[in-house]
Amino acid sequence: TTFQDGGEEVEDGAVYNVTLKKVQIQQAANKGARWLGGEGDQLPPEHTVRQYETSKIRAIKAGTLEKLVENLLTAFGDADFSYISIFLATYRAFASPKAVLELLLDRFGNLEASSHGEVANLNSLESEMVLRVEIASVLRAWLDQCSEDFREPPDYMCLLKLLDYLKNNMPNSDMESRVQNLLKQFQNQEVEAVDGFCSTSSSDLVDGEELEISNPEEFSCFQDHVVAEQLTYMDVMLFRRVVPYHCLGSIWSQRDKKENKNLAPTVRATITQFNAVTKCVISTILGTRELKIQQRAKIIEKWIHIAHECRILKNFSSLRAIISALQSNSIYRLKTTWMCVSKDILLMYEELSEIFSDHDNYLTSRELLMKEATSKFANLDSSEKENQKKSQKRLQLQKNKGVMQGTVPYLGTFLTDLIMLDTALQDYVEGGLINFEKRRREFEVIAQIKLLQSSCNSYCLIPDQKFIQWFRRQRHLTEEESYKLSREAEAAADTNILSPKSQKSMVKRISTLFLGTDVFTPPKEQPPKSSPVGGSSGESTDSASVSSCEFNHSETEDVCVTPVSSPEDPLKKGSISSDKGSGSSKGSESSQGSGASKGSTSDPGSGSDSGSISTRDSGLVPSSAPRLLPVYNRQSGGSCIIRVSMDGLHASVYKSILITNQDRIPDVTQRALLKHNLEPDAVEDYELVQVISEDKELVFPRDANVFYGMNSHVNFDFILRKKA
User: Fold this and answer.
1) What is the mean pLDDT of the chain?
2) CA 453 and chain centroid, separation
3) 641, 643, 649, 540: which is closest to 590 by C-alpha?
4) Fewer Cβ in 10 A, N or C end of the chain?
């Protein structure tokens, strides 16, 4: 089979891409060869006859809403077989269920009044039957793939309209009874809190229970694999509920508006759970002042083992949450405690952290996720022999049970990709047509989410109510509390049981492990900076910190953890640096939204220590995407993506802006104000500043060209500041 580009076809209200598909349909021997007794498939090429058929594939590239809905009925005839799935997964970015349903039923489904253009010739019974079948096929796909679109309490207008149409046009059909059952199901279901597993509000606790700081003895009673299984159980339940269109960049990026406080609840639930795991790790390590350093080190070791069990279960969400917590400022700075962690476990920690390396747009975690998405069990490859032996033993136990495993992803990676696609590609093209090519690109990411959701059906986990109740009861430390407890723990350790001789030997051991022959010099500490209201409460404010996609968590539920070392380098040379007293931080989490903060040199004491997740994957497009798309931190093709935060707000509360080599300061300022939900008319009141380093800024003149004026050798981080 060969394909050939057939160019474009333009119709009124639509533009199509045309591809010519040439397929070999028959190969036969000629008569002379057959007379000689040869078999057709064994004859040389000169004695065979090949027949080919060329077919045309039309895929809509852009169109009006009416044309896009009409194309639902004609896509199969145009050989665009994936169109219905793509449309249903992405249409919420440009239309409502009501608008699409009205067009489908009133414009094309009203067979009695078929006097409109496209259906005017459908006057024969046969044509009406064909149209009826096509509409039924679309409705069936809609109910199969996106039944949540019809959940509109308390009136359920769309579902009632659909039911009325079916009663008139397809009475007593299976679909009619199905819609009736769906309506009853929605009406009878009580309103559920999608974050029921991870909420720590008092309303979720049994009468008489109160939030409490973790008791180390109680936590140690839970076996490592039990904790990992229960975290996986909670993650699976929440991830399976994620409505894919909630992840679209055009929808998720609107969550900060006041009227959208309930937007994308299924995504918010996964973020809340992610943060709850991270906070739980921090509170178990720091919550009890009386712990000795060896006891605290044992808890760190236990969490590393739990992270390893999550890896065996292919739960990348809780795995990343635990790693992020261990890399947070308040935990990372416990240098004496980390000295008491065994070498084997530190190596295990390094290998787990390596999964989330930000190298090449998090290529390692992306490839691993896709490799394991459909595999029955985890593919473990440990470079350390002892760890590999333990891993294979645990994996064999899983295989012996004979139950396949699914895969729980770190959702932030997909959110990052979708936000970057939304930023880089236009919603409308020339003539005001909806850019459906953008939706096809977004569907590539949505399809991966759906595949992983399907794989989660393979899990067979039973909830352990004892652990779940313990997990819900945990009181999460604020960043100020965790930093204070961290300092107290380290100060006590410095004057505690370690003699000068043992201190010297431990310093030598840890410095050899981390830095080769270099001396271990702990970073200089500074008190944490308070987070402004509305910002992510747990993120470093260092200006060099780079979180690459528009994943700000300004909600109170989306607290952030800022690791001080990158996920890949806590055990590598240079991972603990004394450069100006700051630790190298490359990989933070920001509220499950997107990946990790890249390249930050944040002071271990200066960021917040709380367990919130500043998750921003370096916001590039999926690996399958063409390289022509603008990406963060790189100018290409006369365009690039910058991140703009408001002066006075937390650095993590930023918006991604696409700029071109034609954009000047007023244009960029206006777009930034709009993105931050501020009045765009106030352009003259603001100045745009690029952050060059911790103590340097580049202030742009009023009419400067931002693309050519910016410093392209540093992070593309900008601040919008009110003029004095």
Assistant:
1) 75
2) 13
3) 540
4) C
Do 377 and 428 lie in one domain? The reply is yes
Q: Is the peptide bond before 171 cis (omega within 30 degrees of 0)?
A: no
Tell me the residue range of the domain where 305 lies.
219-483
pLDDT in tens, 50-105: 677 788 888 999 999 999 999 999 888 777 889 999 999 999 999 999 999 999 99
Q: Tell whether the model's pLDDT for residue 44 goes beyond 90.
A: no
Q: Which of 187, 208, 230 corresponds to the end of one domain?
A: 187
Amino acid code (one letter) for 316 = F
Beta strand extents in 140-210 (DSSP E only): none
DSSP helix/strand/coil, 609: coil
From the list 670, 716, 408, 386, the residue with the least C-alpha distance to 549 is 716
What gap in Å lies between CA 612 and CA 33, rounded to an integer? 76
The closest of 525, 430, 543 to 483, measured between CA atoms, is 525
Phi, psi for residue 665 in degrees, rounded to 5: -50, -50
Angle at 211 between CA 554 and CA 469, to 5 degrees: 100
Together in a domain, 95 and 241: no
CATH number at residue 466: 1.10.840.10
The per-residue pLDDT for 621 is 34
Alpha carbon distance 654, 675 (integer Å): 9
H or E segment at 598? strand 597-598
Q: DSSP readout, 254-304? A: TTTSGGGTTSSHHHHHHHHHHHHHHHHHHHHHHS-TT--HHHHHHHHHHHH
The CATH number covering residue 652 comes to 3.10.20.90
Q: Which of 443, 435, 438, 421 is nearest to 253 (CA)?
A: 421
For residue 375, what are the CA distances in angstroms to 278, 314, 372, 405, 532?
Answer: 28, 10, 5, 8, 44
Terminus-to-terminus CA distance in the chain, angstroms? 66
pLDDT at position 438 is 96
User: Interior CA angle at 163 toward 161 and 167, to 5°?
Assistant: 120
Q: What span, in angstroms and rounded, lies between the C-alpha atoms of 321 and 559?
A: 12
What lies within 8 Å, CB to CB, of 87 at 6+ separation is: 68, 71, 72, 439
32-41, 43-52, 610-619: which is most confident: 43-52
Angle in degrees, CA 708, 714, 718, rounded to 5: 70
Say yes or no: 288 and 413 in one domain. yes
Question: Domain boundary at 430, 461, 483, which?
Answer: 483
Is 609 a residue whose pLDDT tops 50?
Answer: no
The pLDDT of residue 216: 75
Residue 701 counted as domain residue: yes
pLDDT tens readout for residues 197-249: 444 333 344 444 556 666 778 898 999 999 999 999 999 999 999 999 999 99
> Could you tell me the CA-to-CA distances from 389 to 314, 385, 402, 440, 552 in Å, in that order?
18, 6, 21, 44, 41
Cβ neighbours of 712 (radius 10 Å): 11
Neighbours of 698 (CB within 10 A): 15
Q: Please report which residue ranges of 516-591 form alpha helices under DSSP H.
A: none
Instruction: Give yes or no: residues 388 and 279 share one domain.
Output: yes
Where does residue 376 rank: exposed (0-12), middle (13-18), buried (19+ CB within 10 A)? Answer: middle
Q: How many domains does the chain have?
A: 3
Question: Is residue 212 a part of any domain in this protein?
Answer: no
Question: How far apart are alpha carbons 29 and 44 in whole angstroms?
Answer: 9
118 touches 110 (CB < 8 A) = no
Q: If we measure between CA atoms, which residue out of 646, 589, 650 comes closest to residue 270?
A: 589
Residue closest to 93 by CA, chosen among 240, 268, 253: 253
Q: Is the same domain home to 388 and 465?
A: yes
Structural domain contains residue 650: yes
Both 183 and 224 in a single domain? no
The percent of residues above 90 in pLDDT, for the chain, comes to 40
Q: Are residues 295 and 376 in the same domain?
A: yes
Residue 261: φ, ψ to 5°: -65, -20
In a domain, 475, yes or no: yes
